[in-house]
């Protein structure tokens, strides 16, 4: 069982992992791109991620969720990872972090 502090630390580690996964079409990581809608960590070390793609026809629709799951699962204390894909609400450029918008020249 993880303590509240350990759950918070694990959540931060998961965010760091997500910041190292890039969308192949847009040179920004999926976290700053705004593709991660929700992230939950349980006391048992289970991680649930709700995410979207830039479009339903995204060429990495099959592989990106698997990559997210595998990379998060590689963290030591993670016991299970579930990645849920949603298109509600649909992704748009307003969901990007300020840093991502600056990097891409979107103001």
Automatic annotation (TrEMBL):
SUPFAM superfamilies: Fe-S cluster assembly (FSCA) domain-like. It comes from the Bacteria. It holds the Pfam family FeS_assembly_P. Residues 12-83 form the MIP18 family-like domain. PANTHER family: FE-S PROTEIN MATURATION AUXILIARY FACTOR YITW (PTHR42831). This is FeS assembly SUF system protein. It comes from Schleiferia thermophila.
């Amino acid at each position: 069982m993880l303590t509240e502090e350990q759950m918070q630390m694990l959540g931060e580690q998961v965010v760091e992992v997500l910041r190292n996964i890039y969308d192949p079409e847009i040179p920004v990581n999926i976290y700053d791109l705004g593709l991660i809608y929700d992230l939950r960590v349980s006391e048992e070390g289970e991680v649930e991620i709700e995410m979207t793609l830039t479009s339903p026809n995204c060429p990495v629709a099959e592989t990106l969720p698997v990559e997210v799951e595998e990379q998060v699962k590689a963290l030591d204390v993670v016991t299970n990872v579930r990645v849920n894909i949603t298109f509600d609400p649909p992704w748009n450029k307003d969901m990007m972090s300020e840093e991502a918008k600056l990097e891409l020249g979107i103001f």
